[in-house]
Structures are given as C-alpha cells and as structure tokens.
Amino acid sequence: MLTSQRKALILDRLRRDGQVVAKALADDLSLSEDTIRRDLREMATEKLLKRVHGGALPLSPDLPDFSARQAVSSEEKRRLGAFAARMIEPGQTVFLDGGTTNAEIVRHLPKDLAVTIVTHSPTIASELEHHSAIDVILIGGKLYKHSMVATGAAAMAAIASIRSDIFFLGVTAVHPVRGVSTGDFEEAAIKRHIAQYAAETYVLATADKLDAASPCQILPVTAVSGLIVPADISEESLTPYRNAEVPILPA
Questions:
Q1: What would the pLDDT profile of 127-176 be if each residue is shown by its tens digit?
Q2: Which of 92, 105, 144, 233 is the most exposed, having the fewest neighbouring CB atoms within 10 Å of its CB?
Q3: Which three-class secondary structure state does DSSP give residue 130?
Q4: Can you give the pLDDT at residue 61?
Q5: Which residue spans within the chain are E strands per DSSP?
Q6: What is the CATH classification number for the domain harbouring 20?
Q7: Reduced to 3 states, what is the DSSP secondary structure of residue 122?
Q8: Which PROSITE patterns does the record match to this protein (predicted)?
C-alpha cells in the first residue's frame, strides 16, 4: 500500500471512529506498528491530525483570542448568521451564545422584530443596542475573557430560570463521533446547561469546524436539533452527520 493510500485511510478512520490506535490499525493492514507511527508523525507535522500516546486524534482547532476572531468576519459566517436570523419568529425567547459567528445572527435581525434575546455574552448584548423592539436579558457571572461569556454558579442559576424556544450554540469543533466541543471545561459546562433548558439547539458550523475535535465535549452531535452549514460543503463531508440522523441546514 502506498504512503498516500495509508494516509487517506488514516484520515477516513479518524473521521469514522474519532481516533486511530496505531497497533490496531497496523494489525488491520498487516503492517508494522513503526510504519503507522511514522505516518502519524508525518501527518501531525502536516497538521492533519493530533498525535497522542498510542495513536492520533482529530486536529484540535486553534483558539485565537476573541479580539482576533472578532476582526475576521467572513462571508461564510455572514451567510450562516443570516440563515439563523430567518429562523427566529416574533414572540420567541432566543438564547444566543457568544462568539463571532453568532454575532452575525444579531446583525441580520430585523430592527422591528419583537423577540426576547437572552445571552451570557456582553458583546452579543451590545450588538442589540439599536434593536428597540427586542427585549434583552443579559446573564451575569464570572467572565471567561477568551470567549467573552459569563460562566460559574451565578450564571448557572440564572439560566436555569429561563426556558428558551431556541438556542444558538457556539462551538469550536464538530465531529460525528466526538460531538460538538470547545476548548474550556467551564465554558463547555455552561453551554451544556443552556441546552438543557432550550426546546431546540442549533449549531452554526463554518467549514473549518467540521471533522475537528476540541478537548471539552459539550454535547453528542446527535443531541443538537440541527447543524447550519455552508451550502457549498461537499456531500461527502456531510455523510457521517446524515448517517447519525443529524438534520443538516445548508445556508
């Protein structure tokens, strides 16, 4: 088997199983474990996967700080935000997670839309300054500065008193096996808590977030109501999510 074929197979296995165990793969392919480990080292150098003891995991996305992410407002994010904004109906209570993609939802909301927006992100709340018809509930707590969202016991308690019709969940990675995830344990806990009290939970996923895994799982991918993804994502990329019966909403 050619090196390129082995590497393609490794990527397929990562996508399918969420991990690669070097010994097991070597046995499956009747190859030496050293050969597989060499492939994994090379692929890690090429930033195709993350090497761990005994094998590999999907690549964990880089986590630039909020200011750096805020400066990048891609056309892809704008399309996803516009699509999500159209899902919101008058009279609903909507929980908006923090993040630059969710900020695009606010920017596409009609100024006269009468809804209640709940958020634990002061940056999201500030985006709503000129939406006179929207009631804004800002959840307080300990500020996690990387994502500019409130976490901790005070935030948990306030969230538990609110039942939202729809929650737009911000994530750093989406994987068919490892679920939707983020880079911080406390942030993952607060996101999971919000989802518990929402009737529906949707994830806006840019192309770079698919088939990746961050350290802290928020929810299994099957627990979300749908993935809002760019319309030009290949059908092959979406197949594992469709197989898991996750609704896909192309934007």
A1: 999 999 999 999 999 998 888 899 999 999 999 999 999 999 999 999 99
A2: 92
A3: coil
A4: 67
A5: 20-21, 50-52, 55-57, 93-96, 116-119, 135-138, 142-144, 149-151, 166-169, 173-175, 179-182, 201-204, 216-219, 226-229, 248-250
A6: 1.10.10.10
A7: helix
A8: HTH_DEOR_1, HTH_DEOR_2
Question: Quick check: helix, strand or coil at residue 237?
Answer: helix
What total of structural domains would you count in the chain?
Answer: 2
Q: What is the pLDDT, as a whole number, of residue 216?
A: 92
What's the pLDDT at 63?
Answer: 57
Sheet holding 20-21, edge to edge: 20-21, 55-57, 50-52
Statement to judge: residues 50 and 121 lie in one domain: no
SS3 of residue 133 by DSSP: coil
Judged by DSSP in three states, 83 sits in helix
Is the pLDDT assigned to residue 70 strictly greater than 70?
no
- Which pLDDT score, from 0 to 100, does residue 62 have? 61
Dist CA 238 CA 37 (whole Å): 29
Domain limits for position 31: 3-57
Residue in 161, 139, 133 with CA at minimum distance from that of residue 152: 139
Angle between helical axes of 100-107 and 75-87 (0-180°, round to 10): 60
